[in-house]
Amino acid sequence: MDTQKVDMFIMTNSKFFESHQLGYIKEELLKLDDSKWTMVQMQQFKDPTTSLIVSLVGGGSLGIDRFMIGDTGIGVGKLLTCGGLGIWTIIDFFLIMGATREKNMEKLQQVFMNAY
């Protein structure tokens, strides 16, 4: 794949991933065929900042932040326990952005697996 396309993808989507994952993403994108580029471009990633805002505004105690990123099991657990009586909610204030970025990475890895 064209280096310029890969660099543009990294620049526009770097906030959706952990910084240590960007090198791996770049390597994998460079290996891809140009025909797979549309498949990569069509992916919509969850915004970690939005997840944090939802968690802080009150959706964290109901598990809405976890439902948003696809962690249904944890979301149900937080919903049934009112955010673990508030403790789980406070812990998630610090973890939700990283969890969102990890889910985005899993989604991109699925694209890489399907591309080969």
Model description:
By secondary structure, the chain is an all-alpha fold. The protein has one domain (3-115). 74% of the residues lie in helices and 0% in strands. It contains eight helices and no strands.
Secondary structure layout plus pairing:
Blueprint: H1 3-13, H2 22-31, H3 37-41, H4 48-59, H5 64-69, H6 72-80, H7 82-85, H8 87-115
Helix pairs in contact: 1-2, 4-8
The biggest sheet amounts to:
none
Structural class of the secondary structure composition?
mainly alpha
Q: Number of helix segments?
A: 8
What oligomerization state is this entry in?
A: single chain
Question: Per DSSP, what share of the residues sits in E-state strands of 2 or more residues?
Answer: under 5%
Supply Rg.
16 Å
Record field, number of beta strands: 0
Give the end-to-end Cα distance, rounded to a whole number of Å. Answer: 14 Å
Low-confidence stretches: none
Give a quick set of tags describing it.
mainly alpha; TM2 domain-containing protein; elongated; 8 helices; 0% strand; 116 residues; transmembrane
Provide a compact summary of the structure.
This protein is an all-alpha fold. The chain has one domain (3-115). The protein has helices spanning 3-13, 22-31, 37-41, 48-59, 64-69, 72-80, 82-85, 87-115.
